[in-house]
Design brief:
The chain is globular and about 45 Å long. It has a single domain, classed as P-loop containing nucleotide triphosphate hydrolases (Rossmann fold, 3-Layer(aba) Sandwich). The protein is an alpha/beta fold. Bound molecules: adenosine monophosphate (AMP). The site of adenosine monophosphate has 16 residues, from helix 2 and helix 3.
Length: 219
């Protein structure tokens, strides 16, 4: 199953994509994580992406699309994937629609995780992420058991450089201008399912799995 998770920054795409991917045995590909990993390694891709990420604007399509297509060719994608943070505009969606049929694949469902704007700002301001496994936490809504440490792997938690008030505002602006048109794009294809992204992590996971029309594989 090929699934796209759509939602504003702070909607919980990363958290939910991680949990749902594990339950349904799908790969989880997050473009933001790929860019941050490239930046950590100091690769040319990472350094180029940094200029845009710092401002909260989108990395150019040419670079992003190439990176995603290479990632989708990896063997771990064969059972399916949750795309988290891609596509982010109509150009990227069209590129994906053009490329997937060449490998006998197609997007099956698009999950739009809807969260109100004031809630998004509140969430992003309190967000902490594991440096090692990228699991996100929230200092009030979803804190780690031990302050500053990841529950899953014991890694150190950090706040993203682009979770500052100014950059957050810009990222939300970019979402409403460039990514929100994808809601209509995928509604027209009949693939969009909308899920209320406000509630507990567990209840939202259940809504997403129900919306995907699939039973989770028992662990
Ligand atoms: P995220 O972790 O999804 O919030 O992404 C962090 C930043 O990475 C974004 O603000 C963009 O600068 C960049 N980015 C992530 N995904 C994409 C994409 N599909 N297209 C362009 N830029 C992206």
């Amino acid at each position: 199953m090929y699934v796209v998770f759509l939602g504003a920054p702070g909607a919980g795409k990363g958290t939910q994509a991680g949990v749902v991917a594990e339950k349904l045995k799908l790969a989880h590909v997050a473009t933001g994580d790929l860019f941050r990993a490239a930046l950590k390694q100091g690769t040319p891709l990472g350094l180029e992406a940094k200029k845009f990420m710092e401002k909260g604007t989108l990395v150019p399509d040419e670079i992003t699309i190439k990176m995603v297509m290479e990632r989708l060719a990896a063997p771990d994608i064969k059972n399916g994937v949750i795309l988290d943070g891609f596509p982010r505009n109509t150009e990227q969606a069209k590129a994906l629609d053009a490329a997937l049929p060449k490998t006998g694949k197609k997007i099956d469902k698009v999950v739009y995780i809807k969260v109100s704007e004031p809630e998004l700002i509140k969430r992003l301001a309190g967000r902490w992420i594991c440096r090692d496994c990228q699991t996100p936490y929230h200092e009030i809504d979803n804190p780690s058991k031990v302050k500053g440490k990841c529950d899953k792997c014991g890694g150190q938690l950090y706040q993203r450089a682009d979770d500052t008030v100014e950059t957050v505002k810009n990222r939300l602006k970019v979402f409403f201008a460039e990514t929100a048109p994808l809601i209509e794009y995928y509604t027209k294809t009949g693939k969009l399912v909308e899920v209320n992204g406000e509630g507990t992590v567990d209840s939202i996971t259940k809504s997403i799995i129900k919306a995907l029309g699939d039973k989770p594989t028992q662990k």
